[in-house]
Design brief:
This protein has 479 residues and is α/β, with parallel strands linked by helices. The protein contains 18 helices and 16 strands. Among the domains are: 133 residues, Leucine Dehydrogenase, chain A, domain 1 (Rossmann fold, 3-Layer(aba) Sandwich), CATH 3.40.50; 163 residues, NAD(P)-binding Rossmann-like Domain (Rossmann fold). The strands form 4 sheets. It has a 7-stranded mixed β-sheet, sandwiched between helices. Strands 3-4-6-5-7 form a 5-stranded mixed β-sheet, with helices on both faces. A two-stranded antiparallel sheet has the order 1-2. The structure holds NADPH dihydro-nicotinamide-adenine-dinucleotide phosphate and (2Z)-2-iminopentanedioic acid.
């Protein structure tokens, strides 16, 4: 241990204790923000033990919102933040299905209906073996703030299953989706709760889920988004999350008189979000040098061109293969790094697009040392709190997922509008609306998160997202 470690810790404790003062009624009043967050989190942890991801997401929001409540006592009195942390409803159900070989399988299905203050519950479904209550509650919690930021009338929800679509035949996936929807259909509806895709749930799964809902209810409604264009889907919805994350990056850069053109970009993941983030970076003149999957990452120093990206799209969306096969195909231009994440490759911009907590403190330090200037979260909570602290300390432009990846759910909201009108907008119309929404979200983050010339986008997104939901909750009474 370093000889100075102990006295330093004691000095911090003393400073913290001094900040605790007696209020006029004699009760201990806390002025130290860290202490207050800790006190708030004690209750959240006690109520939601064994849910580390949910606790992590709540703590990150509490750090920004608790100090804001001091200046906005009406929200504090009505205990809005405490209420937002408690899901309105949690559904958990059995999903029985049968494999092609006739083996009986049982998975667990979930839907977290988190908050409906500003619109019907809205958020994706995730099919992945790591899915549990904690993961889905964190995602549903984030979704409440994200959906609020889009300016559209969307409440927050999330769902999914520990079902693993990898290695399953189309018929097995179809039978699973039909069984999952047989139960879920009792709880959702176009004005109640509107699911969409997330990890492991793409166009194929949404099609099977929609087919089963329609069959059970005898209704053709916009109960799901991310549908195929032929049966009510919106143009640009597949592209929206990745494009939106890059539009947001452009906004951050343009505020400083820069652009994506000529920048080197490191992307993780190779699924829906990663593919379209890579496509948009290329269109705007940047160079994407990495993509990854859960097996490892590829490094292509010449950049991933549209032709190479087509290979990746076919590999991941049709063949459902591994990213390693890209390196085998382009073996003279590209390396494969087994079991690793791409954060040690020098870049100007990093866009993590795979999963939560995929970028830790050491990765963040490496990115900073390599002169990375912008980090935009395409995934939900991909950077750990320690990594985010490093970015803030070094004044990196860091866009949290609830702002940067909101383009996906925003175009889902536009899909709902088109379904209600029974009409479909052109690509150009939807893309323009997506761009405008990302610009507005950026503006909101700057409004609430800027101090001394630096924008803390996480703080800005949390407060801006909170205010709209809080106002709606106040207006609707203690429900
Ligand atoms: P996909 O299923 O299309 O792709 C997921 C990608 O991430 C794959 O490359 C996958 O690798 C990789 N991945 C998944 N889990 C892990 C893991 N535990 N460790 C390492 N790699 C992993 O999902 P999406 O692209 O839709 O979602 C990616 C992220 O973006 C998620 O955080 C999601 O919540 C978020 N998001 C998605 C939106 C959407 O509209 N789809 C909207 C907003 C956010 P492999 O193929 O090996 O599994
Ligand atoms: O995390 C997300 O915002 C999504 N998976 C998309 C949700 C949606 O309803 O489109």
């Amino acid at each position: 241990m370093h000889p100075f470690s102990k006295p330093q810790i004691m000095a911090t404790k003393t400073a913290e204790t001094k900040m605790t003062v007696k209020g006029s009624n004699g009760a201990a009043k806390m002025n130290n923000p860290k202490e207050r967050v800790e006190k708030f989190m004690e209750k959240v942890r006690a109520k939601n033990s064994h849910e580390p991801e949910f606790q992590q997401a709540v703590e990150e929001v509490a750090e920004s919102v608790l100090p804001f409540l001091d200046k906005n006592v009406k929200y504090k009195k009505a205990r809005i933040l405490e209420r937002i942390c408690e899901p309105e409803r949690v559904l958990m159900f059995r999903v029985p299905w049968v494999t092609d070989k006739g083996e009986y399988q049982i998975n667990r299905g979930f839907r977290i209906e988190m908050n409906s203050a500003i619109g019907p519950y809205k958020g994706g479904l995730r099919f992945h073996p790591s899915v549990n209550l904690s993961v889905l509650k964190f995602l549903a919690f984030e979704q409440v703030f994200k959906n609020s930021l889009t300016t559209l009338p969307l409440g927050g929800g999330k769902g999914g299953s520990d079902f693993n679509p990898k290695g399953k035949s189309d018929n097995e996936v179809m039978r699973f989706c039909q069984s999952f929807m047989t139960e879920l259909s009792r709880h959702i509806g176009p004005d109640t709760d509107v699911p969409a895709g997330d990890i492991g749930v793409g166009g194929r799964e949404i099609g099977y889920l929609f087919g089963q809902y329609k069959r059970l209810k005898n209704e053709f409604t916009g109960v799901l988004t991310g549908k195929g264009f032929e049966y009510g889907g919106s143009l640009i919805r597949p592209e929206a999350t990745g494009y939106g994350a890059v539009y947001f990056t452009e906004e951050m850069l343009s505020l400083r008189g820069q652009s994506i053109e000529g920048k080197t970009v490191v992307i993780s993941g190779s699924g829906n979000v990663a593919q379209y983030a890579a496509e948009k970076v290329y269109q705007l003149g940047g160079k994407v040098v990495t993509m990854s999957d859960s097996g490892g990452y590829i490094h292509d120093p010449n950049g991933i061109t549209p032709r190479k990206l087509d290979f990746i799209k076919k590999l991941k969306n049709v063949k459902r293969g591994r990213i390693k096969e890209f390196a085998t195909n382009y073996k003279f231009q590209c390396d494969y790094h087994d079991g690793k994440t791409p954060w040690d490759i020098p870049c100007d911009i990093a866009i993590p697009c795979a999963t939560q907590n995929e970028l830790g403190e050491e990765d963040a330090k490496t990115l900073v040392n390599n002169n990375c200037k912008v980090v935009s979260e395409g995934a939900n909570m991909p950077c750990t709190p320690e990594a985010v602290e490093v970015f803030h300390k070094h004044k990196i432009f860091f866009a949290p997922g609830k702002a940067a990846n909101a383009g996906g759910v925003a175009v889902s909201g536009l899909e709902m509008s088109q379904n209600s009108m029974r009409y479909q907008w052109t690509r150009e119309e939807v893309d323009k609306k997506l761009r405008d929404i990302m610009t507005n979200i950026h503006r909101s983050c700057v409004k609430y998160g800027s101090e001394n010339g630096y924008t803390n986008y996480a703080k800005g997104a949390n407060i801006a997202g909170f205010v709209k939901v809080a106002e709606a909750m106040l207006a609707q009474g203690h429900v």
